[in-house]
Amino acid sequence: MNLCLFHASPLSRAHTSDGNAQIGYPKSDVVIATAVGAGLASLVCGIFGNLPFGLAPGTGLSAYLSYGLVLAGVLSRPQAMTACFLSGAALALCALAQLSTVIMRVIPRAVKLATVVGMGLLIALIGMVSIGLVVPNEDTLVTLGDLSDYHIWLALFGLIVTGR
Q: Which of 4, 68, 80, 84 could form a disulfide with 75 if both were Cys (CB 3.0 to 4.6 A apart)?
């Protein structure tokens, strides 16, 4: 189950951003890999875990892998896929050996919350950059984009409507 999630996870982020073209995966392959990974993980969870959960790849680690590691040049695409496979295999072994419960007890609550908040901020920043709300700046690293662009206001309106 974890193996399917971690293998499809980096691909899932690419179909919602410009990362797809930059990373080099065709959009149709990304969508199919995400759907197959989510479907297989959901089936495994339902059959072997006897739990009625639908599982899908998370975008936090996917965004970090795509933007923070691959596009930043830290890892090549094959290295990133190998890292995903190995981390999925390691997590599957931890789950089978019930080490994941022990590990989660050892990690302080503040670190768990900070990790989730940090990934949420990364996803929010990627979204703001993709609509032009935040743009690069040599002096301050980032700055506010051109607010006269209607695409920004349309995206913010959609965000507000979706959030209600």
A: 80
Render pLDDT for 28-85 as a digit per residue (tens, 0 to 9): 887 888 889 889 988 988 888 888 888 877 777 777 888 888 888 999 989 988 998 9
Strand, helix or coil for residue 144: strand
Residue 81's closest CA among 4, 2, 7, 3?
Answer: 7
Q: Examine residue 77 and state whether it is found in any structural domain, yes or no.
A: yes
Q: Which of 55, 54, 71 is nearest to 14 (CA)?
A: 71
φ/ψ of 141, rounded to 5, equals: 75, -55
Give the domain range for residue 71: 2-106
Token pair 């193996």: residue: 3
Q: What is the value of pTM for the model shown? A: 0.63
